[in-house]
Design a protein that fits this description.
The protein has about 325 residues and is α/β, with parallel strands linked by helices. The protein contains eleven helices and ten strands. A five-stranded mixed sheet has the order 3-2-1-4-5, sandwiched between helices. Helix 8 packs parallel to helix 9. It is globular, with a radius of gyration of 20 Å. Bound molecules: 5'-O-[(R)-(carboxyoxy)(hydroxy)phosphoryl]adenosine and zinc ion.
Length: about 325
C-alpha cells in the first residue's frame, strides 16, 4: 500500500502566522491561523516591521498547536513546506528561518513554496478529484491573473493586470472612504446595503484579451468622492462600495468564463483573497452554471492566507517536482509565478 505523505506547512508572507498538517496534498489534518489584523488596524495597513516581530512571537505556538491538533507526531512528518515568496521580506524570513531550523533539527526535507502557487493549490483541497487542466482566476492583494493550469507543475499565463491588483484596488477604495483595515472585506460588507448607481468605468471590458487595469477605476472613485465633497454633497459609502465592487468583479467573471470557453476547458477555479468576496462567488457561480462550466470555489478561509494551501502546493513540489531546498534557501519578496 502506498504510504501517506504528511507535510507540515508554514506560511508567514504578510500578517497571518499559519501552520497546517496536510495529508497527500488534499486532506487537512489541522490548520492554525494567528491573525495580526487587530495589531495593524490602528495604522490603517500592515506595518512590515511590526508584522515580522509578531510572526517571530507567534510562530512556535502556532506550529505546536497545528501538530497537536493533527494527532500526528513530529517524527511522522515527511517534509516541511514553507512560503519563501512573494511577500514582505521580514515576514517571510520569520517563517522561513523557523522552517529551516526545524527541517535541520529533524533531518526532514525542506520544500520551497511560491505563495501564489499555494493559493491555486487550495483548489485541490476544496475538490479532492480536481486535476489539471483547468482555468484559474488569481485575484489577491498583489496579483490578478488568468492562468491556464496545464499540469500540477506548469501553467500558461493568459493575462494579468497592467497596474493595481484587484485586492489592492479594494483596499485603496476602502482607504479613500475611511474604512478600517483590511479594506476588501469592509467594502464587500458595506456593498450589501448599497446600489450600483454611480457611473464608473469598466476597465478594459471591450479588450479581447485577458488583461485588467484597476488604476482608472480607482481614480474614478477618488474623483467622485472629491467632487461630491467639494459640492458639499453626501457620499453614500454603501453605494460607492457597491458600484465599485460590481465594476471590479464583473470584468473578472466575464474574462475568466470566456477564457475557459475559448480554451475549451470545462472547469474554473478561484485563487486568492478576493475569492472570499460574496458578489464574486455568486456571480461566478451563476455564470459558470449558465455556461455549463464546473466551478471549484475554495471556502472563504481557504481563499485568504492559510498554511493548508502551502501544504497542498508543498506536496506537488515534493512529489511531482522533486523540489527540495537546502538551508541556503532565502526569502524572495518579489518571487514571480
Ligand atoms: O490572498 P490574500 O489573502 O493575500 C495576498 O496574497 O495578497 O489577499 C488579500 C487581498 C486583500 O487585498 C483583501 O482586501 C482582499 O484580498 N480581500 C477581499 C475580501 N477578502 C479579502 N476583497 C474583496 N472582498 C472580500 N471579501
Ligand atoms: Zn495570499
Amino acid at each position: 500500500m502506498k504510504k501517506d505523505i504528511l507535510i507540515l506547512a508554514i506560511e508567514s508572507s504578510c500578517d497571518e502566522t499559519c501552520a497546517s498538517i496536510v495529508k497527500n496534498g488534499r486532506e487537512v489534518l489541522s490548520s492554525v491561523i494567528s491573525s495580526q489584523i487587530a495589531i495593524h488596524r490602528r495604522f490603517g495597513g500592515v506595518v512590515p516591521e511590526i508584522a515580522s516581530r509578531n510572526h517571530t512571537l507567534a510562530i512556535t505556538q502556532v506550529v505546536e498547536e497545528a501538530i497537536e491538533k493533527s494527532g500526528v507526531k513530529l517524527e511522522e512528518i515527511d517534509a516541511i513546506a514553507v512560503t519563501y515568496g512573494a511577500g514582505l521580506v521580514g515576514a517571510l524570513l520569520a517563517g522561513l528561518s523557523f522552517a529551516k531550523a526545524l527541517a535541520y533539527s529533524l533531518s526532514k526535507p525542506l520544500i520551497p513554496v511560491n505563495h501564489i502557487r499555494g493559493h491555486i493549490a487550495a483548489n485541490y483541497i476544496e475538490d479532492k478529484e480536481l486535476k489539471p487542466p483547468f482555468m484559474c482566476l488569481v485575484a489577491s492583494g498583489g496579483h490578478t491573473a488568468i492562468l491556464k493550469i496545464d499540469s500540477y507543475t506548469s501553467h500558461e499565463f493568459l493575462g494579468g493586470t497592467f497596474d493595481d491588483a484587484a485586492g489592492e484596488a479594494f483596499d485603496k477604495v476602502a482607504k479613500i472612504l475611511g474604512l478600517p483595515y483590511p479594506g476588501g472585506p469592509e467594502v464587500s460588507r458595506l456593498a450589501k446595503d448599497g446600489e450600483a448607481n454611480i457611473q464608473l468605468p469598466k476597465m478594459l471590458k471591450g479588450d479581447k484579451g485577458y488583461n485588467f487595469s484597476y488604476s482608472g477605476l480607482k481614480t474614478a472613485v477618488i474623483n467622485y468622492v472629491h467632487t461630491q465633497t467639494q459640492k458639499g454633497m453626501e457620499v453614500n459609502k454603501a453605494d460607492v462600495c457597491k458600484s465599485f465592487q460590481n465594476a471590479a468583479v464583473d470584468v473578472l467573471v466575464e474574462k475568466t468564463i470566456s477564457a475557459a470557453l475559448n480554451s475549451r476547458l470545462d472547469t474554473i477555479a478561484i485563487a486568492g483573497g478576493v475569492g472570499a468576496n460574496d458578489y464574486l462567488r455568486e456571480k461566478m457561480a451563476e455564470f459558470a452554471l449558465k455556461n455549463n462550466l464546473k466551478l471549484v470555489l475554495p471556502e472563504k478561509i481557504m481563499c485568504t492566507d492559510n498554511a493548508c494551501m502551502i501544504g497542498a502546493e508543498g506536496y506537488i513540489q515534493f512529489v511531482h517536482n522533486n523540489n527540495v531546498a537546502d538551508l541556503t534557501l532565502n526569502a524572495c519578496p518579489s518571487l514571480k509565478l
